[in-house]
Amino acid sequence: METLPAFMDQYYELVEIDLSYSSSIIQFLQKLKYLYLSKCPRLKQIPDLSEVPNLEILHGTEATRSIVLRDQDFYQEQDIMRWRDLTFSDICQLKLLILDGVEAPILSYIPSTLRVLRWRCCPMETLPFMDQGYELVEINLSDSSSIVQVWHGKKFLEKLKYLYLKCLYRLKQIPDLSEAPNLEILDVQCCDELNDFPSYLTRHKSLVKLILYRCSSLETLASKLEMNSLKELDLGFCTSMRKPPEFGECMKHLSVLYLWGTAIEELPTTVSCLVGLKDLRLQHCQRLTCLPDSIQVLKSLTFFNLFYCPNVLQSLHSLSSLTSLDTLILSGCFVTSQESWSYNLGNLVSLRDLELSHNNFVRVPINIHELPRLRHLNLDYCPSLKVLPELPSSIRVLNARDSASLDAGHSNVISKLCCGFAASAIHDSDGLLQMWVAQNEGEEIPLWFVHQEEGNGVSVTLPHNETMALALCFQLCPRRSSRNYVVNLPVICNGKEFITKHLTVLRETKNSQHFILCLSSDYFVDQFCQDYRFELVFPNNVEMKVHSSGVRWVCKQDIQDLKKSGTETSKRKATFDLNMNMNITPPSSPCRKKLLMVTPSSVSPLEEEEEE
């Protein structure tokens, strides 16, 4: 059957069509091509006709409020719906029209009563907006590679709030939105040919979110933005953009600014107007030469990404005033190996996550131990790194994988960190410390882990003295170099899964590494036994094995010894500082600056005597 029979009386009384309760009806309608509902004045909602793939012509009624003709295979990109015509009554009251995946130009007219229009993969070059005024609240034409111009001329769109024009690859200009005063979201990301941004939009009073991500032909946005409602601005990978706009004083509500992957050389000093900014992303801005001092006033900033911005190192001092900063990414910034780098970021009292991977420094040039809330430190893929820095007891995740130059001395840092964790874990709800540390060829598990066994597994007896934590170390060796995995690594205790939470991301490499866990005593409250055996379990698809295992109970005496050694170190440092001050040349001397430069690798005379 290609068309429904014309039972006029029944059509007149028809109020609802529901195809969801009977698969036999859907099968019966597989060959239906024409559906005329213009004689159904009481029918307000046309059913979802996605299961009627051969339907070509649909005539709606003046009472119709909703039409959904979504292609069921839209996301699989298989069949194309065979629509040829969609016709409405002249007095149609249509509110919702969804045509996602309908790849035929079936619209000849868009009713002015429409509230929502969604037509992803629209095949038309321009949509038939014939009227001057519309009730539209949302328009979504994303992924429509045919659209060149959304509509012609000016349209009165007083109620329009959401306009999604994502991935319109032939779109060269944004449609006229001068009469859309209530627009809140404008998404034109991945519009490769878009090369102009209307000046009137730079002063829009209602726009909250503006996304221009990957508009690679866009060279400039405006000389100045004065958008007092804007909260999110995404200019990421606008690769032709060399100069970002200035920011007006009214832009205090902007909280997200993405400029990553652009060709900008500097940030405007008016970035200081963005007092509400929380998220700033500048990664891959390789031409960025410096950060303005005005960035210091961004007291609300919590996330700052400078990944692979190697030319901003001389400006890192300006970060010391960002006291609300939670996450700082400096990966790929230190591209050359220099021991003289030194940055004091101790004022970053809120910092919890510090990313320093893919750097080429010999020593970490930041005073890590002065960051009181630091939880996560990433030193992965630092090929020149020789020693691990002194770490605060707040650390809960340390990654130093594929940092192949680390010397054996890092075992001392690990033992101190485990003892510091044991002392602080009693005040911390997260009673787990995990570390991934690169292992040099021939290096074994540190001797600090006093109980050691070959292979996967180690046994230990609970001591009689007061224990604070348990430290485990597994020496992992790759069976072969293979791809990366994201896995959970369950730790087995006495044959049962002991730790069920997600531990970390395992990146398989050709190098061996140590996987270290430190657990607070809370993990053993319900374990009513004296003897324990711990093992690490890998999924079958992970090409790694445990070469050896080690364990140590961290007791009160270990913590007291750590505090004692810390006091002695502080005394030696104070003596060293005193000696330095006594030898400093008066300010008039031209060599004063040279004597004041103390690198992390400097050794005091007292320390040299002790070593001898």
UniProtKB/TrEMBL annotation:
<dbReference type="InterPro" id="IPR058546">
    <property type="entry name" value="RPS4B/Roq1-like_LRR"/>
</dbReference>
<dbReference type="Pfam" id="PF23286">
    <property type="entry name" value="LRR_13"/>
</dbReference>
<dbReference type="InterPro" id="IPR045344">
    <property type="entry name" value="C-JID"/>
</dbReference>
<feature type="domain" description="Disease resistance protein RPS4B/Roq1-like leucine-rich repeats">
    <location>
        <begin position="228"/>
        <end position="407"/>
    </location>
</feature>
<keyword id="KW-0677">Repeat</keyword>
<protein>
    <submittedName>
        <fullName>Uncharacterized protein</fullName>
    </submittedName>
</protein>
<keyword id="KW-0433">Leucine-rich repeat</keyword>
<keyword id="KW-0611">Plant defense</keyword>
<feature type="domain" description="C-JID">
    <location>
        <begin position="442"/>
        <end position="558"/>
    </location>
</feature>
<dbReference type="Pfam" id="PF20160">
    <property type="entry name" value="C-JID"/>
</dbReference>
<dbReference type="InterPro" id="IPR032675">
    <property type="entry name" value="LRR_dom_sf"/>
</dbReference>
